[in-house]
Design a protein that fits this description.
The structure is a single chain. The protein is α+β, with helices and mostly antiparallel strands. Helix content is 59%, strand content 10%. It has eleven helices and nine strands. The strands form three sheets. The chain has a four-stranded mixed β-sheet, with helices on one face. The protein has a three-stranded antiparallel β-sheet with strand order 2-6-5, with no helix packed on it. Helix 8 runs antiparallel to helix 9. It is globular and about 70 Å long. The model has no long low-confidence stretch (mean pLDDT 93).
């Protein structure tokens, strides 16, 4: 299969990347993750107002841009590359869960708010959820799909400070639909979204490592000139490109409703998580001692890689769901 993004999709990725390069450098990322909200609210507002990232996959009838889930995944890959803390995945998952399981009335009331950039979160009772503690639109999939009041979740500290987690502490709310359908859609979209984030982060980590290998001199030569290290970085390139292929295939299948979408989602999540863990480990190894210092971004890559591996199912859990 010959698969490539359209000119418009490539331009979308380029625009998001350009904005994040300017607004989400290393210093900005650290400031955002240390803030009370856990993300850069001004950057999120810019992404929503100027590019419409939260509205991409929301149908026009509900105030969205009327594109597809694929465009949202393209943006998520760029967000993953930047390391910027962002509620985008949480909002995309919530919108998709609402479209799958919400009543018509709930869709009409809540989807325009999500498309406009209000932070949204989808939670399962007792489980950590992305951005649940600071979401304006908070859905809980228990016996029924329920909208619970904002502020009904408690912040959960995590190793990776660029990914904010919360746990819903209240269950009283308004029933707005079918929890089973919402959960099923949210789990697949979340898995593919994590794969997109992982593919972007893997590409960022490889770029960092290659650039450092050209600068770091040992025995009178840049370490990137040593054949053994060339081979290691070439293997990382294979992992990154395979992750992107798996992510793109799953994103397209899920966006178009392909019959093998669930299988491709499991493949993408399991492969990209394992690949990113290996890329992150090699990033630390090839950077040497500076990689474990707070000032260097390699430690942020390592932490996020392990965090993404846990979100929406671990790799071995997804492999177990693939029918051979």
């Amino acid at each position: 299969m010959d698969f490539a993004f359209s000119e418009e999709q490539q331009e979308l990725a380029s625009t998001v990347r350009s904005l994040l390069v300017k607004r989400a450098d290393s210093s900005a990322v650290r400031s955002a993750m240390a803030s009370e909200a856990g993300y850069d609210e001004a950057l999120w507002q810019t992404l929503c107002e100027q590019i419409g990232v939260a509205a991409l996959a929301v149908p026009e009838e509900y105030g969205g841009a009327g594109f597809s889930l694929l465009e949202a995944m393209i943006v998520l890959e760029e967000v993953g590359r930047s390391l910027a803390p962002s509620p985008l995945l949480s909002s995309v998952v919530t919108a998709e869960a609402l479209l799958a399981g919400g009543t018509d009335e709930a869709k009409e009331q809540l989807l325009p708010r999500i498309a406009a950039g209000e932070v949204a979160a989808f939670a399962v009772p007792g489980e950590p959820s992305l951005f649940a503690d600071c979401a304006a639109v908070l859905l809980l999939a228990g016996d029924a799909l329920t909208e619970v009041p904002a502020g009904s979740a408690q912040w959960l500290p995590s190793m990776d400070q660029t990914i904010r987690l919360g746990r819903v502490t209240a269950t009283d709310g308004t029933a707005i639909g079918d929890a089973s359908a919402a959960r099923a859609r949210a789990s697949l979209v979340g898995a593919v979204g994590v794969a997109a984030l992982s593919a972007g982060l893997g590409a960022r980590a490889l770029e960092m490592t290659v650039a450092y290998s050209k600068e770091r001199v040992q025995f009178g030569r840049p370490i990137g000139s040593f054949q053994a290290l060339k081979h290691r970085m070439a293997e990382l390139l294979v992992l990154v490109e395979m992750s992107r292929s798996a992510s793109w295939a799953a994103s397209y299948a899920l966006a178009t409703g392909a019959p093998n979408a669930a299988e491709l989602a499991h493949v993408a999540k399991s492969y990209s998580s394992d690949a990113l863990n290996q890329v992150a480990a090699e990033t630390v190894q090839l950077h040497g001692g500076i990689a474990i210092t707070w000032e260097h971004d390699a430690q942020l890559v390592f932490k996020r890689a392990h965090a993404l591996g846990q979100l929406f199912g671990q790799p071995h859990q997804h492999r177990a769901l693939i029918e051979l």
